[in-house]
Predict the structure.
Amino acid sequence: MIRFDDRVAIVTGAGVGLGRSHALGLAGRGAKVVINDLGVGQDGQGQSSGAALAVVAEIEAMGGTAFAHGADVSNADQVGDMVAQTIERWGRIDILVNNAGILLDKTFAKMPMEDFRKVVDVHLLGSANCCHAVWPIMRQQKFGRIVLTSSASGLYGNFGQSNYGAAKAAMVGLMNVLHHEGSRDDIRINTLAPTAATRMTENLLPPEALKLLAPETITPGLLYLVSDDGPSKTILSAGAGCFAQTRIYETQGTIITGDITPEAVAQNWNIITDPTDQEELQDAFSQTRKYAKRAAEAYKIKLDW
Ligand code: NAD
């Protein structure tokens, strides 16, 4: 059975929606949980501690342990204070769930750059601030489990969400690099791409779909990702009890020798984009090596790499 006894978790944006469900799930299986929430509206406006305190009360009522912290994840000092308070109370941080988020949807043509920046600030820099603050602690413990929250908007695209989609796709880049830097200290990092009925989606989906898409249908996936035996560098897409892995593949492609012209690229387009034998590259230099080796072979150059 997956348990989190003696584990300490921070869940950001845990006052409502998915974050609340994740926090209750972790606490229900034994973790001590920091309920972080700035208590803002969906657009990032306003501020209240009510929702976070209510989740703490729910956890305490079921015999669990939690405290609320109102750090704005986009403010590194406030995040630092949250992490310091957690260490002071409980001495370690094993799990970080980066979940806090806002929406400022507009078509790109009408998007003020201020709105673009704000969304990137909360989702991308907010997640980076939290990861950065717990990183030395997890390295020293030689144990850490981190989840970043992405979205189908970033992975696949969605009209009117250029700021949000860009910030959410950036989670994958942050995960990919932190996986390589954290693996020697057993820090595992994954990305969750949820689709859930919350205030974020309540006006966008039909009522029957909203009933099926409760956050509680996603949280078991999150709990597996942060478990002792969980994976690393995985994008888990989830909703309505459905779970799937989103992966990035590169086609075999081809080499163009002689005149490397745009016309030659056009002529080879079918081969370049042919998915037969496409592969998932493990790191950036796997790609560089693949190209250098293929070119060395084509030009009969000896390459020991
Ligand atoms: P929600 O609006 O219900 O909850 C978000 C929470 O984050 C709120 O409690 C809010 O106060 C908090 N928050 C916002 N800015 C903050 C900040 N700067 N610092 C601290 N807390 C802050 O949203 P949700 O639907 O539960 O979404 C949770 C996460 O999942 C978000 O990252 C969202 O982008 C992502 N997501 C949701 C869906 C979906 O279908 N609901 C789909 C894809 C991704």
